[in-house]
Design brief:
141 residues; mainly alpha; two-stranded antiparallel sheet; 5 helices; 6% strand
Length: 141
């Protein structure tokens, strides 16, 4: 299974389930209606945190994979962003600071994703697990 199919099933699967106003049976037997908003808001926040994480990863990889000669050519053609990137590439301390900042951003975005996504997803799938597997709320998986 490719990584894109895993991403598709992890993101699109719950959204499809949430599209319909499904009725889940809670452990006490009370019915709980789950609407698309119950799924959409947490999944949007999770998607934004994943995008933020990807932004920092791409920033780190792009500075490591950029050739100084390519940036010099772009700077000579009048690209001011290339001049800034070239100054980072020419100074090892600046490059270390740039990479450290990117890694800090990756870490913070990942921690935020873990702190938010686990309770949000657990709250959304709990009624289905209780109904499908006939387990109580206190059961540990």
């Amino acid at each position: 299974m490719s990584k894109w199919s895993v991403v598709f099933y992890a993101v699109a699967g719950p959204m499809v389930l949430g599209w319909f106003s499904l009725t889940a049976v809670a452990a006490e037997g009370a019915e709980q209606s789950v609407t698309i908003i119950d799924w959409l808001i947490p999944l949007t926040i999770i998607a934004l945190l994943i995008i933020l994480n990807g932004l920092y990863v791409s920033a780190e990889f792009s500075i490591l994979g950029t050739r100084a000669s390519q940036m010099e050519e772009m700077r000579n053609n009048g690209n001011t962003s290339a001049a800034h990137i070239l100054s980072i590439l020419e100074h090892p301390d600046e490059q270390d600071r740039y990479i450290a900042t990117a890694q800090l951003g990756i870490t913070i975005a990942s921690l935020g994703l873990g702190m938010y996504a686990e309770p949000a997803v657990a709250h959304l799938i709990e009624p289905y697990l209780v109904a499908w597997f006939n387990i109580s709320d206190a059961t540990t998986l």
